[in-house]
Amino acid sequence: MRRSLLPLGLMLALAACQPASPPNAAAPAAPTDFIYAELDIADLQARMQAGELDSRRLTQAYLDRIAAVDKAGPQLNAVIELNPDALKEAALRDVERRANAVRGPLHGIPVLLKDNIDAVPMATSAGSLALKDFRPGRDAFLVRRLREAGAVILGKANLSEWANFRSSHSTSGWSARGGQTRNPYALDRNPCGSSSGSAVAVSANLAAVSVGTETDGSILCPAAINGVVGLKPTVGLVSRQGILPISHSQDTAGPIARTVADAALLLGVLAGRDPADAATTNAAWNTTLDYSARLTPGALKGARIGVLRSKAAIHPDAAAALEGAIQVMREAGAIVVDAEIPTDGQWNADELELLLYEFKHGLERYLAERNAPLTTLTQLIGYNEQYRLSEMPHFGQDLFERANAKGGLGESAYIAARSRARRLAGPEGIDAALKAQRLDVLIAPTTGPAWLTDHKAGDHFPGGGYGAAAVAGYPSLTVPAGHSDGLPLGIVFMGTAWSEARLIALGYDYEQRTRARKPPEYWPTLPPGATRHRTGG
């Protein structure tokens, strides 16, 4: 596909973020040539429509790619389980195509799912050995929508075990069942989490697109750190039925893709009202909205954009990338002003409190309804203690224990914490910032560059710019924005509830003007000439 020239402001900002490599420094060889590398859904559909490609051949190519890159080669550990029926599903989609019965833009497209989403006949383990043989008997609602749209379920992606809610000292991307997911840009760097495998797989071209889940940063952070697009929808746009939960106040599934266009296509399929998830019955959103129709150039012209400059302190190179993004937006005709979330961070203690309460309640309900082998948090804690060498070689389960000590959702402490957190992050946070200057959107660095994976000390997380949207239940979108020593950086767009279409329009225009994504090169560590001290190394 055609690559547009970078605006001068972004070129200067990105140049400041990247050290010069020695003239003779050769990049490591790509683990394998891949004919479909970096092709988006529209490209793949065009080839299938022309008869140059079919779904079975494409699915087999991704399976071969997984074998060569994920299980061999650099061994990314992004895929935890393959769908044994993937080729059969693909062949059926080909039969339908030959009969002129194409179901939609995802027809025949292989999709990976995070391993906390039910999809027959695979396990839903959340990365835990306690559930490695737990195979729910029905698909999650969003998986049914994917199948109805003609998508091929390729398999399950590895994740931070229990979606990073077992220990406050966890290492992102590690699970007892799947091992440590590795960052494809520098294999000793962390992929962030908890949708680690979902983001790494898309970045490494192991699947066309993937589905992640987020409670607070679990789509946005791994997407940014692995150089891809991640979209966390408004809570209630996508059903959570059939997803192993943390918090019904904040949980949502969402798309991870290499382009904003692919994320928009996938979101259009995932979104839908489900009687089993009351949050999706909110009348404020339009189920017939075509997000792809918002993929038009020029959306930035006249847009009013607020910059959360306080988040630039995350990392110097993230700050430089933010300045480059501001320059691009201004050159596109946007009105860019400094902004503040007046309540920033005031919800932190309340957020943790509501997560601890809701995790125990939601998890035990999910397990009991599906006749899981273990159905209480007490049993899971006991399992981890019994199999400590395999389940807890690196970190413990203090969050499990704290959640297990909580009472029911009728307790006043929970009710007050939930009310304060959502109010401070939403109406008195993002909404207040938007209204103060009549803004369309807030932007910030998504996070800093990837840190060294450290199983002993845990994550060296530099901070994120997306927390308010997560706690408020509002949408957020991260788009590639540059690199730091070869490690990707992202810019997050945040808006009020149900503003996905606006975020997609602005993010798409920004993406088309910058084309900042660069495919990974699978360096064992940072490339020659990198300033390792900048990234925790």
* Terminal Cα span: 36 Å
Low-confidence stretches: 1-26, 532-537
Class based on secondary structure composition and strand pairing: alpha/beta
Percent of residues in beta strands: 5-15%
Identify the overall geometry: globular
C-alpha Rg, in Å? Answer: 22 Å
Mean pLDDT: 93
* Spatial strand sequence of the major β-sheet: 1-3-2-6-8-7-12-13-11-9-10
Could you characterize the architecture of this molecule?
- By secondary structure, the protein is α/β, with parallel strands linked by helices.
- It is 35% helix and 12% strand.
- It is built from 16 helices and 13 strands.
- It has helices at residues 8-17, 41-49, 55-71, 86-98, 141-148, 196-203, 220-225, 260-270, 316-331, 348-369, 377-386, 388-391, 398-404, 412-436, 467-472, 500-514; strands at residues 79-82, 110-114, 152-157, 174-175, 179-180, 209-214, 229-232, 252-257, 304-307, 335-338, 441-445, 476-484, 487-494.
- Strands 1-3-2-6-8-7-12-13-11-9-10 form an 11-stranded mixed β-sheet, sandwiched between helices.
- It is globular.
- The two termini are 36 Å apart.
- The relative contact order is 0.15.
Task: Offer a quick outline of the entry.
With 537 residues, the protein is an alpha/beta fold. It contains 16 helices and 13 strands. The chain is globular, with a radius of gyration of 22 Å.
Defining traits:
disordered C terminus, eleven-stranded mixed β-sheet, alpha/beta, disordered N terminus, 16 helices, 537 residues, two-stranded antiparallel sheet
Write the layout of secondary structure elements.
Blueprint lengths: L7 H10 L23 H9 L5 H17 L7 E4 L3 H13 L11 E5 L26 H8 L3 E6 L16 E2 L3 E2 L15 H8 L5 E6 L5 H6 L3 E4 L19 E6 L2 H11 L33 E4 L8 H16 L3 E4 L9 H22 L7 H10 L1 H4 L6 H7 L7 H25 L4 E5 L21 H6 L3 E9 L2 E8 L5 H15 L23
Parallel strand pairs: 2-3, 2-6, 9-10, 9-11
Antiparallel strand pairs: 1-3, 4-5, 6-8, 7-8, 7-12, 11-13, 12-13
Helix pairs in contact: 1-9, 3-4, 10-13, 10-14
